[in-house]
Amino acid sequence: MEPTVLVADDDPCIQRLLAQMLQTLGYRVMLAGSGEDALAQLGEQPVNLVLLDLNLPGMDGLEVLRRIRKCKARPAVVLISGSVSIEDAVEAMKSGACHCLTKPLSLKDLETTVREALTQQMLDTPGPGSAEQVLISASPAMREVVELVRCVSASPATTVLLTGETGTGKELIARELHRSGTRCHGPFVTLNCAALPAQLLESELFGHERGAFTDAKASRCGYFEEANGGTLFLDEIGELPLPLQAKLLRALQERVIRRVGGNRDIPIDVRVVAASNVDLVAAVEEGRFREDLFFRLSVIPIYVPPLRERKEAIIPLARHFCQLFARQLGRPVREFTEMEQMALLNYEWPGNVRELRNCIERAVLLDKPIDVGSGLCASESEAAGGVQDTLVLSLENPSLAEAERLLIQQVMARVNGDEHLAAELLGIHSATLSRKMDGHGTRDRCRDKVLLS
Question: pTM higher than 0.85 for the full model?
Answer without folding.
Answer: no
